[in-house]
């Protein structure tokens, strides 16, 4: 159960936590301590804006058992509706596999993921990917966040050896080829790891029956406005380039970075959509080669064959 909040109070709480507020000022942190020298209750920092706007409401939140257990996540639509209906609190855990604070809330019959948006169009991209059955299904959320169905499965690079038959690998390759082709036909450039990165991390979840999902569309790009891309979109494109990571380490200030992005925007404007999208195919091949270093060279041929057949079949 959760405390009794009026519609106006609920709206105020949601405005305070979404989008995610910045770190509280030091004076606010001090004011949140129950007594001098005591730690700030770990469930309260996300609500710090209310300490200025509505102190009585802030104090009620600090004592609410549901808020103590799962903090701001109690007020996301999918969770709040269940709490109002008297359902038990979900188990809350955090994933370190992705950037940002990724909360996983598990019920007996359902698991959902809540995480901050990484780009202004990530929500639109993630919804499209979900509708195409490429990514997780998207659920009602709050501004600045995604709420999505939890995708079961094992990361590709962590699949057990006993599953890695030629038929299974060819099926995975075929599914990934189909998924990328569907994204490309929807004007979406995935722009991220599929099979593996140099450290063995993957964004491809695979179930024992061969079903697959891609996760994390934070640096993906919608190309519907190409060649008129904004600096955020250009940044998403270049952040996967090794030379850009070197440049960022040497950049004098943000103005220097913005000039670089503006210049690169002209280069992207002169690059066709098909050239941009083809990088996904390069990333897939590179990632497969990296995965093979961990999983064995024999995985390459069946995955490649399945991928190529499926990708070209949808052309």
- Fraction in beta strands: 5-15%
Distance between the termini: 51 Å
Mean pLDDT: 92
Measured as a percent range, the helix fraction is 40-55%
Biggest sheet, spatial arrangement of strands: 1-2-3-5-4
- Helices and strands, in N-to-C order? HHHHHHEEEHEEEHEEEEHHHHH
Classification by helices and strands: alpha+beta
Radius of gyration: 22 Å
The best one-word shape is globular
Structure summary, number of beta strands: 10
Oligomer: single chain
Structure write-up:
Helices cover 46% and strands 11% of the residues. It has 13 helices and 10 strands. It folds into 2 domains: 76 residues, no CATH class; 160 residues. Helix 8 runs parallel beside helix 13. By secondary structure, it is of the alpha+beta class. The longest helix is centred in the last third of the chain and has 23 residues. The strands form 3 sheets. Strands 1-2-3-5-4 form a 5-stranded antiparallel beta sheet. Strands 6-8-9 form a 3-stranded antiparallel beta sheet, covered by helices on one side.
Topology:
Blueprint: H1 7-17, H2 26-31, H3 50-53, H4 55-63, H5 65-70, H6 77-84, E1 91-95, E2 102-106, E3 111-116, H7 122-131, E4 138-139, E5 145-149, E6 154-155, H8 166-185, E7 188-189, E8 204-206, E9 212-214, E10 221-222, H9 231-238, H10 242-250, H11 254-269, H12 273-295, H13 300-313
Antiparallel strand pairs: 1-2, 2-3, 3-5, 4-5, 6-8, 7-10, 8-9
Helix pairs in contact: 8-13, 9-11
């Amino acid at each position: 159960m959760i405390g009794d909040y009026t519609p106006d109070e609920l709206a105020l709480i949601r405005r305070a936590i979404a989008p995610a507020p910045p770190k509280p000022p030091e004076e606010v942190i001090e004011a949140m301590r129950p007594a001098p020298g005591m730690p700030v209750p770990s469930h309260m920092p996300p609500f710090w804006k209310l300490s200025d706007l509505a102190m009585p409401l802030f104090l009620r939140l600090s004592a609410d058992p549901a808020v103590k257990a799962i903090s701001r996540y109690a007020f996301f639509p999918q969770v709040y509706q269940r709490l109002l209906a008297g359902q038990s609190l979900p188990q809350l855990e955090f994933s370190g596999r992705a950037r940002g604070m990724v909360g996983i809330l598990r019920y007996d019959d359902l698991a959902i993921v809540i995480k901050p948006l990484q780009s202004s169009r990530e929500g639109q991209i993630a919804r499209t990917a979900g509708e195409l059955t490429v990514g997780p299904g998207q659920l009602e959320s709050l501004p600045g966040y995604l709420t999505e169905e939890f995708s079961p499965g094992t990361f590709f690079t962590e699949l057990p050896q006993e599953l890695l038959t030629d038929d299974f690998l060819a099926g995975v390759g075929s599914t990934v080829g189909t998924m990328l082709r569907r994204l490309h036909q929807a004007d979406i450039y995935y722009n991220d790891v599929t099979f593996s990165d140099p450290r063995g991390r993957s964004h491809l979840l695979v179930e024992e029956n061969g079903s697959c999902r891609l996760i994390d569309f934070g640096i993906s790009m919608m190309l519907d406005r190409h060649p008129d891309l904004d600096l955020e979109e250009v940044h998403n494109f270049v952040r996967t380039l090794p030379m850009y990571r070197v440049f960022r380490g040497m950049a004098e200030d943000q103005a220097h970075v913005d000039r670089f992005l503006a210049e690169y925007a002209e280069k992207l404007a002169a690059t066709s959509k098909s050239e941009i999208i083809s990088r996904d195919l390069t990333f897939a091949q590179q990632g497969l080669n990296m995965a093979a270093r961990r999983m064995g060279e024999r995985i390459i041929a069946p995955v490649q064959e399945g991928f190529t057949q499926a990708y070209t079949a949808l052309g």
